[in-house]
Design brief:
Blueprint: H1 27-49, H2 52-80, H3 93-100, E1 111-113, E2 117-120, H4 127-140, E3 142-147, E4 159-164
Antiparallel strand pairs: 1-2, 2-4, 3-4
Helix pairs in contact: 3-4
Length: about 170
């Protein structure tokens, strides 16, 4: 059983040690950081209690449970920031759908935002699917970005944002 807990892996996030917070950190920020440190400490304690397959079961349950919490927080943040799904697809949407024919697996869990872009949150994608998307976007004067900031199910899905290309 490893005595190394998760805190040692969190250096890149500045969470590898508890530090005194500067006065500039707001009360909500302070409380949030306290909760994060409590979670880290509790997980570290649990990791010391279990070994082997039990430890793996613990990690699996924490991974999916905390992923669900992150998903809920992402949805709440979207609402608070005023980023809401708008009625009506972007002008290019119908033409893009016609070009796709039977669809494309990477265009999963789609939403429209502000009438200017369509956002998809797929779980995975193949090179062939991305090649087809690139071809259609070039043909229709569109562009897209791909990143890991999916609010659909963080840690399990990624995000594709398609919009008109700026000319």
């Amino acid at each position: 059983m490893s005595a190394v807990g998760i805190r040692s892996w969190l250096r890149g996030f500045g969470l590898d040690a508890k530090r005194r917070l500067p006065q500039s950190v707001s009360e909500p920020g302070r409380r949030a950081i306290e909760v994060v440190h409590e979670i880290i400490d509790r997980i570290d304690d649990l990791l010391l209690e279990f070994a082997g397959s039990e430890r793996m079961e613990l990690i699996d349950e924490l991974y999916y449970g905390l992923g669900a919490v992150m998903c809920g927080l992402a949805h709440e943040r979207m609402l608070l920031e005023g980023v809401r799904e708008k009625r009506g697809a972007p002008a290019f949407y119908e033409e893009m759908r016609r070009e796709l024919g039977n669809g494309l697996g990477i265009l999963d869990h789609g939403r429209y935002y502000g009438g200017e872009e369509v956002v998809y949150h797929p779980y995975d994608g193949t090179m062939e699917e991305f090649e087809k998307l690139i071809s259609i976007c070039r043909k229709l004067g569109l562009t897209f970005t791909v990143n890991g900031a999916s609010e659909y199910f963080p840690g399990h899905s990624f995000r594709i944002v398609i919009r008109k290309r700026n000319t």
